[in-house]
Amino acid sequence: MTSTTARALVVPRNGDSSVLEVQDVEVSPPGAGEVQVEVAAVGVNFIDVYQRQGVYPLPTPFVSCSEGAGTVTAVGSGVTDVAVGDRVAWGSGLGAGATVVNRAADTLVPVPDGLDLDVAAAAMLQGMTAHYLVNSTYAVGPGTTALVHAAAGGVGQLLVQMVKAKGGRVVATAGSPDKLEIARRLGADAVVNYRESDDLAAQVRDANGGNGVDVAYDGVGKATFDASLASLRPRGLMVLFGGASGQVPPFDIQRLNALGSLFLTRPTLGSYTATREELLERGTSVLRDLAAGRLALEVGGRYPLADAAAAYDDLEARRTTGKLLLVP
Ligand code: NDP
After folding, report:
1. β-pairing, 4-11 with 21-27?
2. pLDDT tens, 145-201?
3. Enoyl reductase (ER) domain: which residues (predicted)?
4. Is 166 touching ligand 1 by the criterion CB < 6 Å?
5. 99: closest CA among 152, 24, 169?
6. What's the CATH superfamily of 141-266?
7. 61: helix, coil or strand?
């Protein structure tokens, strides 16, 4: 087998979306333990923004994006559980933003029959994130009260549904009436427009019968962190899982004491998919729930690879709902 030429979304240097370039790249035949995939759809994620900006430093140039799905076209030596023609998806590791990629076979999750590849691509990173947040970071169950910020966003929409499916109660925030309506439709028990709030924690408590919530899921970061802490019950869990509004600055740990023996965690998907078993368990669970209609995923926009900058501009400017995809 010879090398192929792919089109790829390249970050040549750190910067805003204007640095993005679509370039031709050589893709070698898959090596040992790898498969080659013709990519059907690529997921747009905030981690791509942090990596492009240099908030998560990486040597440049690199091919952007961590999430995708497609069909296996070639198999390297030693690969036994993936075959040519298999439909596969993944949600970690750089380089997904291309028409053809080589992937380590043990990072792939099979896509169930009946599930579109673009939905699978859209679900992997955010779906597995929501899955670990409600199952493993905090074991949400009947009666759990959860605060979910940016509830009309990619992770947010899935979090609302997963908390509700477990019998929990959701206080959701979002930045516009239309976004609040999306959160309500997905099952949120109470909604708060945090762009119009001058005391967000008080509003969250009001919406929760005057009590603090058990767990705060906060991927907005800098703008909401203090209010999230103040929304928790004593011994509640603060889950800071991202910084869409900016990273949270250094923090005086005594505040956890003053606010009532709070717990704080800053989780990342890699720690919750570190073994092949855990990756397969989470990925398969999310894809099966989607295929069976137990979980709904809104694809809020599809952009050609050449228009990737517009997708990231929309995401960063809070103009999007649900999940954005790049279609190579
Ligand atoms: P979203 O689709 O949720 O988009 C981000 C949303 O955040 C916006 O739509 C906006 O909603 C809200 N927001 C509030 N303030 C700002 C701001 N200043 N700038 C931009 N957005 C703002 O994105 P994702 O679902 O892809 O990601 C959500 C978060 O989850 C990110 O922080 C991401 O890094 C994190 N994440 C973390 C993972 C982990 O394992 N730790 C894995 C995956 C994602 P509104 O208009 O309603 O305010």
Report:
1. antiparallel
2. 999 999 999 999 999 999 999 999 999 999 999 999 999 999 999 999 999 999 999
3. 15-326
4. no
5. 24
6. NAD(P)-binding Rossmann-like Domain (3.40.50.720)
7. coil
**What residue spans define the domains of the chain?**
4-124+276-326, 141-266
Threshold 0.90, pTM exceeds:
yes
Residue 220 CB–ligand 1 contact under 6 Å? yes
Instruction: Identify the bridge partners of residue 283 per DSSP, sorted by sequence position.
Output: none
Q: Residue 109's beta-bridge partner residues?
A: 89
Q: How confident is the model at residue 1 (pLDDT cuts 50, 70, 90)?
A: confident
The pair of structure tokens assigned to 316 is: 């960063």
Q: Which CATH architecture has domain 4-124+276-326?
A: Alpha-Beta Complex (3.90)
Locate tokens 């309500």: which residue?
184
CA distances from 293 to 114, 178, 297 (A): 11, 23, 10
Q: Where are the alpha helices (DSSP H) in the chain?
A: 46-53, 117-132, 154-165, 177-185, 200-207, 225-230, 254-258, 269-272, 276-291, 308-316
